[in-house]
Amino acid sequence: MNIRLRLHHLAIAAGLVVSSTLLPAQAQTAPVKVGLVLSLTGPFASTGKQIESGARLYLAQHGDVAAGRKIEFVIKDDGGVPDQAKRMAQEMVVNDKVDVLGGFVLTPLALAVAPIATQGKTPAIVMSAGTSSVIDASPYFVRVSFTLPQNSVGVAEWAPKNGIKNVVTLVSDYGPGIDAEVSFKKRFEARGGVVKEAIRVPVRNPDFSPFLQKVRDEKPDAVFVFLPAGVGTQFMKQFAARGLDKAGIRLIGTGDVTEDDILNDMGDVAMGVVTSHHYSAAHPSPENQAFVEAFKKANGGKRPNYMAVAGYDGMRVLVHALKATQGKGGEALLNAMKGQSFDSPRGPVEIDAQTRDIVQNVYIRRVERKDGELYNVEFDVMKAVRDPGRGN
Ligand code: DHB
C-alpha cells in the first residue's frame, strides 16, 4: 500500500474527513469537472446543442487531458428556465464538485447562475448570454461569446453609407434585444440616420405578423432586427408573407437572425440580408475551414453556428488555463483565463484581462448563395471591437 493510501486509511479510521487540501497531489490528478448548464429542450435547444457539440469537438481534436487531469463534462438541461439553471448550477457546485461552470444559453439563465459561481468561487465560462451587463453579474464570469452592442454597431455604421436613412428597430423584449436596440440607435443616429419606431416583441413564441404590419405602415428604408438564435426562420417567413420585401423595405440586423444553423432553410427571402456579427461559417480562414469541416463530420453534416464556436473556444480557454496553472482550479484558474489571446475559427480574439469580456472582430456580411447553399459572406470588418455597451 502506498503512503498516500495508508494515510488516507488512517485518517478515515480516525474519523477525519480527508479534504483535498490534505492531499494536494491527488487533487491535481483528479479529473477536472466542467458543469455545462445548457438549454437542450424547449425553444432554445438548438443553441444548447451547438454549444455542447463545439465543446466536445475541441476536446476530441486536442485531447481531453490538461496538466495531467482528465476533463469530464457534467451536462444538465435547464429547459430555458432560470430557476432550473440556478438549481442545476448549485447541484453541480455542491454535489458534483465541478471545477468550472459553463454554458448559459440566454441572458436570464446566466444571471440566475451568477450568485452560485460567486458563492462557490467557481470560474464560469459564458458561452452565449450576450447582454453587456452579464459580465458584471459575477467576478467569476469570463465571456467567450459576444455582446449585442458589439454586433449592432457594425451594421449601424454600414447602413447610412448605403442608402438607409431611416429605420424601424424590432427586437426581442429582454436584455440582449434592448442592448441591440439602444446601441444600434446611438451609433446609427450619430452617423445621421433616424430611428422612426422601436418595436419590442415577446421572447417566447412570438407571432411577428402584427409587428410586421406596423413596420410596413411606417415605410422605413429598412428594419433592423435582433432575435435570439433559432428564431430567424419563422421571422423570415412572415417577413415575406407580409410582403415587406416586395414593398422595398430592406432587412438588416445582428447576425443572430441569419445564423448558420438555420440559414440554409430560409430560402430566397434571406438573399441580400446584411448583418454584422463576429462569426460566419463562411469566414475564409484555414482555422475556420478546418473547424467547419470537423464539426460537420462529427455532427451528421450539421453546420456550426456562433454558439458552437463559443463552446469550442470556451474549452480552448479552459485547457490553456489548466496548463498555465499546472492543473490548479479556483482563483488561479480564473486568473489564467483572463488575458488569453488566440486565433479562433472566428478570427483573432482576446479575453480582456480587466473586463473578462471578449474583444473580437465584427464583420459586415451579406447573405449569398455559394455552391448551392446560403451563407453570410463577409465583405468588411471592424477590428478588435471591445464591448461598446460598457462605455468603451
Ligand atoms: C442571447 C441569446 C441568443 O440566442 C442570442 O443569439 C443572443 C443573445 C441572450 O439571451 O443573451
What's the helical proportion of residues? 25-40%
Shape: globular
Mean pLDDT: 93
| Percent of sequence in beta strands | 15-25%
SS-derived structural category: alpha/beta
The main pleated sheet reads as: 9 strands, mixed
Distance between the termini: 59 Å
Radius of gyration (CA) equals 22 Å
Poorly predicted runs are: 1-5, 10-23
Kindly state the number of beta strands.
15
What is the number of helical segments per DSSP (H or I, 4+ residues)?
12
Identify the notable features of this structure and list them briefly.
392 residues; alpha/beta; 9-stranded mixed beta sheet; 12 helices; 15 strands; 38% helix; globular; disordered N terminus; binds 3,4-dihydroxybenzoic acid
Summed up:
With 392 residues, the protein is of the alpha/beta class. The chain contains twelve helices and 15 strands.
Describe the structure.
The chain has helices spanning 3-13, 24-29, 45-62, 82-94, 107-120, 148-158, 175-190, 209-218, 232-241, 286-298, 306-324, 330-337, and strands at residues 32-38, 65-66, 69-77, 100-103, 124-126, 141-143, 166-172, 194-201, 222-226, 250-254, 274-277, 341-344, 347-351, 358-370, 373-385. Strands 7, 8, 9, 10, 11, 12, 13, 14 and 15 form a 9-stranded mixed sheet that branches. Strands 2-3-1-4-5-6 form a 6-stranded mixed sheet, sandwiched between helices. The radius of gyration is 22 Å and the shape is globular. Residues 1-5 and 10-23 have low confidence and may be disordered. It has 12 helices and 15 strands. The protein starts with a helix and ends in a 7-residue tail after the last strand. Bound molecules: 3,4-dihydroxybenzoic acid. 3,4-dihydroxybenzoic acid (DHB) binds at residues 47, 106-107, 128-131, 176, 228-229, 256. 3,4-dihydroxybenzoic acid is lined by residues 47, 106-107, 128-131, 176, 228-229, 256.
